[in-house]
Please model this.
Amino acid sequence: MTVTAPAAGGVPAHPASTPSLPAAKAAGTVRLLLDGEDDRAVHRTAYQWADAARGKITADPTPNTTSPAYLALDVLRAMGRTGFSREGAERMSTDPAWRAVTCWSLAGGVHEVIVLRAHRFTVERLRRLAAWRTETGIRLTLVAHAPDPADIRRLMEHLAAARLTDVVHVRGTAAILDAIGPAVADRRSGPPPHDHAHPLPAVPRASVAAFRAQVWRRQNGADLARTDGQYRAGYTAACTWLARTLPPKPPPVGGAEDAAAPAEPAPFGLRETEALRLFLARLTVSSPSPEHTVARVRGAQAGLLTRSVLLNVPDDLTRRAGPGITTVPLTPRTVHTITTHLPNPLRAAAIAALLFTGTATPLLSMTQIAGVDENATHITIDRDARINIGAPPTPRHLYAIPHRARPLLRAALEFRRRTPRTAAAHGLFANCFGTTPRLEALIADAGLAVPALNHPHTDDDWHTAARGWHLHTPTLPAPDVLPRLDRVRS
Model:
């Protein structure tokens, strides 16, 4: 596994504006397929056409009910979000269910929808579909299996009452099948396969000065190469981040005598410390094990030393919580599990945040809506400002959001924005953790192990305990002249 250099840029001094989902395109006309013969081929073709991964879904409403909430759940089921059907799972009422439909449609790129059994729809159900279409720009197709002309007349009246007037009618089985389109040939079913990461053996607890030497003495050739790969990835990422983010160290001030005398190390300022925390979180958020994290951090320490920057981290990282220690990599399979089991965007984002921050729930519950940056790349939690009101500002807690988790956070933010009486200072994960039964219900619904919940959390997360100093020393050789461990050993 490799680590890419974190993105350039520091940490904004103030929370950025709330990120939003892609703007909806203008909705096209509604297609009404009048299947007067109630042909089974129409059902079969509509199902074969659908592919949620490509943004095309077919919703088959639950019979014998006219509830708008049930219709929203049927649409969520068509998207693959079926967790509400589990016994004891959270139940969503009408408005939250339709907000979830809208947010997941925007986050997942749903752009074409076929809804069956439209001849039985009430005006309220059609109004919900019309609002969904307006807010997302989906291409809506209604299929009416109505052999009785009275059912067709009633449907037309309901469409007019719901202000769905731009309707194109298609009649006849052959024309309907042609309007639906061909079946998807390469549709994938089931969850993605498990990801595999080569495990690392126990790494030494030595400091950065002795880490590489002890790894060389204790590990065999294959383990040595993997550990060295993580070490060098952290080294390169640190050099790149420092060059892009932090300004060069200031020259000595004063005369020749002052320049000759060694200057005291200059500690990082407030914003530099926050930028350092975010860099360390980005470096380790995808780490598959604490051993990978330790190797990456030791490499980052070595890389910063070559640029006259000293990075101090806790002596034993594995005794702390935080990114790379109590986190779970958000692989495609993990994200599939979250989105399938948790149809509520807030709860899906909450469990994802527990997995990629690795922090305690009391701290994570302080996340404000405005605490997510504009591009949903990191979370900022200003804990001390809420606890010590009026005290001087201190570095905030920052956590990197992995790429695969960003749609979940955007959907949750959009869900909050559409909730009545919501402000940017309100909690993003309000009512997601709370009491022990509520948290236990969330974990049970997700069906995933959360290492952060089993960690003692006796201290702050390891990356928030990291400190940096500017050293007034000559710059060391560039990273490309450092020998590879395998070459040294040979």
